[in-house]
Amino acid sequence: MKKKLAVLLSFAVIAVFSLAGCGGGDSGSGSAGSGEKAKFVVGHSMAEDTSFGKANAQLEKELEDSGLFDVEVYGASTLGSEAEVIQSVQMGETQLYMTIAGTYSSFIPAAYVFDYQMPWIGNPDEGLEVLQAVYNDEEFSSYVKKQCEGSGLKVMGFSTLTYRTFTTNDKVQGFSDWKGMKLRTLENPIHMASINSWKATATPLAFGEVYAGLQQGLLDGQSNPVEPTYSSKLYEPQNYITNANHVWHVVIWTVSEESWNSYTEEQQKVLQTAIDNACQTMTDYCVEHNEEYLKYFADNGCDALYLPYETLKKMQESSQAANDMIAGDKYAGKEAYDLWMNKIEEKTKELGYDQSKETYEKYLKSIGELK
Predict the structure, then answer these.
(1) 249 with 100: CB under 8 angstroms?
(2) 257-297, pLDDT tens digit by residue?
(3) How many C-beta neighbours within 10 Å does residue 196 have?
(4) Tell me, what's the pLDDT at 34?
(5) What is the per-residue pLDDT for 23?
(6) CA–CA distances in Å: residue 39 to residues 21, 97, 246, 249
């Protein structure tokens, strides 16, 4: 009996070690070599029916269809604040997060270049093509990605919600109309310096508090891209949307460095392709829906304005001191700033575009805003 028991115990020990040797442990390690799918948790701050939701639904399908990833997507800030989720990505608990470029500036100083004020006062559609050509440029994108190395984050791509613009209570046409307005903006020194240079008062406020601030009259206007203005109903307490297009709103997509390094070459390739596709889907969705949103605003009492070229030019000139801040060591630095400016000039020439009054007014005529 003792001999039989000893044999049984021996088999039990062998079985335990065999299981351990066959990949027992964390099933979410991300290694395709084990034959298991890599757990892939995605977080973002927007609702399912936005560009964030659409892009991440597509990403989830592509990764699941590859058979290499087990994907869970959590939108509407379900996983926590931006700072909390970014930290979670650094620790490898969350695999992917994407948000406005400025949020990453403490990890990626070069991200400050995306805060450049009044970047384009020609045809805004052409300006968006220039932006995409810049951030998809190999030299520029590699520069930004390299700055992030060792931070726990890996930059995977860029997308845009097009431009940030303002909704306001009062009609804006001339440069002097900005004077005295309390305008909600990001708590970002470059954005704030630009707005203050127009003699308006930059008023940083958390996104979740903006609607109440507008409704209660604490603010005269607010800055956001068209899509968040629509999805959060920020047009409701306002009379106008200016289409001032004062900043390109760039979104940076980052994955966990720890998770990325655990993936096989095949997984990395599939993931990069899926993120590239999702970035373009987000951008295309916003470009395609902006006019629809503007019409919806007008139907609900918030009329679209298009500022005269002379007003935009004065705003651009006044914002130059704010833009000069970007080249400082406290922000992006001169090397990153010069690369950014050179790439804008290079891509503008390659695409055959310009920022002239003639081009801008031709655009206004094409959309029926100028006779």
Answers:
(1) yes
(2) 999 999 999 999 999 999 999 999 999 999 999 999 999 99
(3) 16
(4) 60
(5) 38
(6) 21, 15, 40, 30
Contacts of 287 (CB under 8 A, 6+ apart): 125, 128, 162
**Beta strands, E only, the chain:** 38-43, 69-74, 96-100, 153-168, 182-185, 201-204, 221-225, 240-241, 247-256, 303-304
Exposed/middle/buried for residue 163 (C-beta within 10 Å: 0-12, 13-18, 19+): buried
As a three-state string, the secondary structure of 133-169 is HHHCCHHHHHHHHHHCCCCCEEEEEEEEEEEEEEEEC
Taking the C-alpha atoms of residue 60 and residue 274, their distance in angstroms, rounded to an integer, is: 9
Q: Residue 27 pLDDT > 70, yes or no?
A: no
Q: Does residue 16 register a pLDDT over 60?
A: no
Query: 171 pLDDT exceeds 60?
Result: yes
pTM, full prediction: 0.91
Max Cα–Cα distance, the chain, nearest Å: 103
Single out the residue of 254, 282, 322 nearest to residue 112, CA to CA: 322
Residue 365 identity (one-letter amino acid): K
Q: CA–CA separation, 306 vs 237, rounded Å?
A: 20
What's the one-letter identity of residue 230? Y
- Judged by DSSP in three states, 210 sits in helix
To the nearest 10 degrees (0 to 180), the angle between helices 265-299 and 124-135 is: 160
Tabulate helix, strand, coil % of the chain (nearest 5): 55, 15, 30
As a whole number of angstroms, the distance between CA 87 and CA 101 comes to 16
CA-based end-to-end distance of the chain: 103
Close Cβ partners of 277 (under 8 Å, ≥ 6 residues apart): 58, 59, 62
Beta bridge mates, 201 = 182
The lowest-confidence range among 33-42, 123-132, 150-159 is 33-42
Q: What pLDDT, on the 0 to 100 scale, is given for residue 10?
A: 42
User: How buried is residue 285: exposed, middle or buried, by Cβ count under 10 Å (0-12/13-18/19+)?
Assistant: buried
Q: How far apart are CA 68 and CA 37, in angstroms?
A: 5
